Amino acid sequence: MSVKVFGIPNCGSVKKARTWLEENKVEVNFHDFKKLGIDEEHLTKWCNALGWEKVVNKKGLTWRGLDEKVKEAVKDQHTAVQLMLNHTSVIKRPVIETSKAIIIGYDEAELNKLFS
């Protein structure tokens, strides 16, 4: 099964997920948002699968640091995708994508279910 992990290497949740995957002998391809960015196609796919409200991390420092007008402008999937294209750090991390599922955030129970 092809597994792709999207995130930034110094994020605690990304580190936990990558460690879990490595310990469980799951080979992954890592995509660094900071270096490689992300395209609209992936963001739209994740939002369609999970809902844009789950993909945008409103608890993170990046979201809290945004101007109030920018935050208020995020009202639907289209505006959320545009925000995430411009501010990749606002995407909840990690995003783990396989042919079977998309998992967002570190969730050991979900990882166990997917890779057992």
TrEMBL record:
<protein>
    <submittedName>
        <fullName>Arsenate reductase</fullName>
    </submittedName>
</protein>
<comment type="similarity">
    <text>Belongs to the ArsC family.</text>
</comment>
<dbReference type="InterPro" id="IPR006660">
    <property type="entry name" value="Arsenate_reductase-like"/>
</dbReference>
<dbReference type="Pfam" id="PF03960">
    <property type="entry name" value="ArsC"/>
</dbReference>
<dbReference type="InterPro" id="IPR006504">
    <property type="entry name" value="Tscrpt_reg_Spx/MgsR"/>
</dbReference>
<dbReference type="InterPro" id="IPR036249">
    <property type="entry name" value="Thioredoxin-like_sf"/>
</dbReference>
